[in-house]
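queue> holo job accepted (iron/sulfur cluster)
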Amino acid sequence: MENNNVIKTDNDLIKYIRHIGDSNLKKCFQCGTCSSVCPLSTEDRPFPRKEMLMAGWGLKDKLAADLNPWLCYYCGECSKNCPRKAEPGELMMSLRRFLISAYDFTGISRLLYKSKFGELIALLAVAILIFVEWVVLFGLTPHGATLNQAVSPDKIDYFFDWPLTVFLGVVLTSFIFNMFKKTVLDDKSVKVPLKLYITEGWSLLFNFFTQYRYAKCDDDNRSFLTKLKEGKYNFWLTHLFLMISYVSLFVAIVFFLDWFQDESSLPLLHVVLFDYFASIGLVFGTAYFIIKRFTKKIERSKFSHHTDWMFVALLFLTGVTGVMLRAAIVYKYSVPVIFYIYLIHLLILFPMLVIEVPFSKWSHLAYRPVAIYFANLKEKAKKLQTAGSIAAQPETVPSEK
Amino acid sequence: MDNNLGVYICSGCDIGKSLNIEKLVNTAKDSAKPLVCMSHEVLCGSEGIGQIRKDMGEKGINKVVIAACSMRAKQDVFNFDPLTVHTERVNLREHVAWISPANNDNTQLLAGDYLEMGIARAKKALMPEPLVQDLNKTILVVGGGITGMNAAINASKAGYKAVLVEKNPVLGGFPNSKYKKWEINPPFDKNIHIKNGLDELINSVENSKNIKVYKNSKIKGISGAPGKFNVEIEPSSENPESPVINESAGSIIVAAGWKPYDASKLGHLGYGLSTDILTNVELEELFSELSDKGVKDDFTINRKSNGKPVKAVAFIQCAGSRDENHLPYCSTVCCMSSLKEASLFRKNNPDANVYIIYRDIRTPGEYENFYRQMQNDDGIFMVKGDVSGVSFSQSDNQINIKVANTLFSEDINLNVDMAVLATGMVPNSGEVQDNLSVTLQVDTANSSSGPAAVPVGTTCPPSIPTGTPQVNKSGLLNLSYRQGKEMPDLTYGFPDSNFICFPYESRRTGIYPAGSVRMPMDTVFSVDDARGATLKSIQCIEQTSKGRAVHPRSNDMTYPFFDLPRCTQCKRCTEECPFGAIDEDEKGTPKPNPERCRRCGVCMGACPVRIISFKNYSPDIIGSMIKSIYVPEDATDENLRILVFACENDAYPALDIAGINKINISSNVRVIPVRCLGSINNVWYADALSKGIDGILLLGCKYGDDYQCHFTKGSELASYRMGNLKETLTRLVLEAERVRQVQFEYSDYPKLPQILDDFVETIKSLGPNPYKGF
Ligand code: SF4
Ligand code: SF4
Ligand code: SF4
Ligand code: SF4
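queue> job finished
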């Protein structure tokens, strides 16, 4: 007897999932309403119904290998229509948290998700490290007449930005590889041909930069413009705006820090892009999400985990201090003022980047497009396989006779 | 008896506007010479009624023909003592004025016919002579479980004596072997000791002065009829020397309960592989044993095989239920009991995981709340799927369950320490005895001996009634009835009659199944069932002792009279009576039991020599109604005459509703209400066809598995007999299509014009009856 599918239920996992979200997962009686109203769910991927069951049974390995949570954008249609008020949309959110901790082999994310204080302590630890580094490099008071003398951009690059970038790159890549292994390599039912990885590469970039599936969340048949006017796309567009702002600022700061420390030499395009577009995006975007989380009017902001709050709060503060810093530079405030704002900015920015990016909510920025990419790969590979086996049949059938 | 006829014609409610009342009055006067014949504008008003009563007093009117509204309307007003006055209602309103064009010759002819038919019947009808008797009013309760005990208590509370017979040494029935029952009140999360309440109930039964309890006893035999059942009670097997005791009873409540489905037939679900694979009933017994019959609560549930605590248990729902090869029905309780047992596992073995493999979780009504509570338990795992295999590995003492078609969209395997098969309920309605099956001997030699005065219909070919199964079970009531020892089953062995209309009713008058012998149910529903059945049996006793029928012809005081010297012993009545009311002697002469009779008239319809009749309903009475129909000789389309026999239970009310809705109906039609289509005697077809009637339509209830016939088999028998009749028609060169039966229910009334027009068209295409004016 092949025992390959012997079910192992993990009661601790159920507890953990309950802990990291507000879904009433056990209340589900598998009616399937959620999957039928979900605009993104398909016949082959009947989420969130199947996830409700797998979570209710605590099927850890199956859940860890499941890409579906990343395909859900929490439009909340499922939760709205669930006759048992089991909050399937929130379960998908909880599962994303679970997946972040499952891809992270260090166990840090699990800690952050489990405990509010854990997260605070971790953030604080990074902040202290940054503070010490700052004092060692630049002292407690500014040395030098100009900003560039007091806080050398090169030193920031060498001792802060670039080590961070390397750290993030290594950690995230290893987590993504872990994810790849769990979801693609270990799935014996499908083997993805090498060629597909390259031909499907476009979907990775496309989804990263458009978050196109977000727009599909609302799948009624009216025209794009009407829905835009009605504000149906507000959430998606804000999210997109925020994400692009964030990414462009991150890239620019890491590679072109000089621009930001220089009060005069900026070409016009950069001013528009960074001083206005990106900064507004960051501050406005985070404020928008904070308000949504406070008012709880829409499904996806109904429940907030402490990591959600921490993430938007830190992002908002980063944005605000960043804007203040830039303003101080442009309006030529005295060097000590800029010096301290700079320090505060880094004390917020770095804990956020070190902790939130690989271990917490931020990582969805990386996992989501990758998951869509993997899901596409598997789907295409499956199609090729069935096509292949159908093509192979005519040869085998006559030989059997 | 004097025929002091009074004819009263009402011209209210559009009747006067539509018909020439004066002409009608003259018709009545000419044909019947009544003592009184008058019309009135509002006959149902105090003046009209006053006049009728005055005539009764002064002129001794004892046959009142009221030509006004339907017999179903104004019953409270035209309400004269049935024992001294025959009231004949002629339906000029719903069946004439409201459905036909006003002031039209054909409408007038229709009204004239109905009036003549009513007068014909009134002249021949006799007053009923009810069989008033001093009868035994004790209620026999068979079975001392929850239903039986509640029935006995209810009877006692209502002031009746009860005799309760229980086969086991103790009362309590199935719950005796159980530990806890589920909570039926908010918050629905507890299970209650079954002992609470049960002991109380047992005590109150045993201490009641009105209830005589026979434990360790069973029924050896029952003879008689409602109000005079003679019950022989004998000890259950254990002590065979004890004497047989005789008791009398007025009516019987059968609360024999259920037995679990035979699990040895469930080998495909692993039963028998290991002692750890048990049925839900065996698990209940285990709970009961471990808890010391409900004394202890802090016990661990251990595996039967090695005594180690159960860590993982799987419940397999619908084990042998909803399965054509086993029990085709849902037992309704096993979902709840598995949920309850699951929660006991979780309470007593907190580390244990409980898996429930279901096809559907069925927790009706409030029970849904219990289900919800159990869902919230993190250690209970449920999934829909089909168990495709159960195996047992001796080496590691594990049970492996394979589940296909799961909602995980893949097949799964479960390894558990214990597996529970949620088996269903089988009614204790007697055991099938192959050697007992009654073979019907129909004496064909006798069937052609009727006088052949009319061309068709006097004789029917041998009729083996397809409809009336001879019961081949025994062991529960052991009735000494001609048709078999137990109540007939409706389906799947449950003895019921027509569930929709008459709950608790069996096809044996005065015998009422209740509780899980009637249909699968839990103890909560059984308590209600006991109440209903008790009320039914009280009603039966009281009605019977007044000589009145129980439903559906409640209060009918007539009963069939058998003119036995003319009987040919053809046995048709004894076989076809849907209620087993007629026994027979050695020679085959029927021995009617009026107390068991429901007055359907099926026997009357069956009798080839027409010796069965009621005082106001007989082959002769209806025959003379048919004969009083005026059939014009020149055969134009509008002179076609269609006779409709309409079942009084559904079809006639539907015709009334059509009238109330002013739905136009063909004026070719003449309606005669019948008690049941099964009461139609073939002689009536002969009467009608020889008279020149062009077509005959039977409007009656649905038959077959989901029959709606109020007398269970009447409409089916009618159609069966019609099959025989058609052969005769063909011999007489009359088209078989001239007689048609339509299955019809009350709510079909909008279809009436269509049904009737269709038939009229068929008759038109056949042409007029060649025997016209014969
Ligand atoms: S709608 Fe609710 S109850 Fe139904 S399957 Fe989805 S989560 Fe479960
Ligand atoms: S939240 Fe929206 S996208 Fe996510 S599972 Fe529910 S319906 Fe689908
Ligand atoms: S009650 Fe549940 S387990 Fe029992 S037969 Fe019905 S559906 Fe199946
Ligand atoms: S009238 Fe009906 S119930 Fe009564 S004896 Fe005849 S067939 Fe049986």
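queue> Chain B touches chain A at residues 353, 361, 371-372, 375-379, 381, 383-384, 391, 400, 407-415 (CB under 8 Å).
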